[in-house]
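Notes to self after the Tuesday call (sharing in case useful).
The group wants a holo model before anyone commits to mutagenesis around the pocket. I volunteered. Ligand is zinc ion. Logging inputs and output together so the record is complete.
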Amino acid sequence: EQWESVQRIRKDRAIPPTNPKRLSNPLSGLVYCAVCGQKMQQIRAGKDDIPYLYCIKNQCCASAKMEYIEGRLIQVIESKLSTLRLQALCAAPPDISPLLTALDFTVRELSKLDARLPRLYEFLEDGTYDRDTFRQRLEAVENEKSALLERRYELEKDIERAKARITRRTAEQLEDVLSLYPALVPGEKNRLLKTVIERIDYSKPKNSKPMGFSISV
Ligand SMILES: [Zn+2]
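Result:
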């Protein structure tokens, strides 16, 4: 009963945080109750004003200390990172040879096209082409060239992307989170977490031990 009245008082006083610098819940907007699907809220309780996460639905999931949930989350991120590192070690490097072949072909087509240009002018000069035919041929070559240039640009981008390797980028993001997290204020923690996590589902049976909750990320 005391818990509930504290909740009510807190709720009445609650001012929605708009400025991320003032945000006091590092997990704001990220944690959902696995039982009822509601977003979990932060509440401060006890004489030391310790932050807890709680489900706003009555008699739903039990609350847990924010500190414990954050600790568990860091463990989850660490284990995801190890999995990614392992995958990166075991995975074969991406096969970009078809892209390289396509790029090589495009580059050769471009130089063939460039070689054709002077011939067009020769044909105009020696009278093989009249002005109209020359203009048409020139325009056709230029159109073909801009299409090939665009293709070359796209292929170069694709090759770059394939080389960057998605797993490595994700692993680096997770490393950043792990190294930066402890030193940040709640609003910054929240923004950082949202770069790698969309949703955390939380559950904790009533009357379970303080750390008897589970989260899935
Ligand atoms: Zn709930």
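Two things stood out.
The first helix runs from residue 2 to 13.
Residues 2-89+184-216 form one domain.
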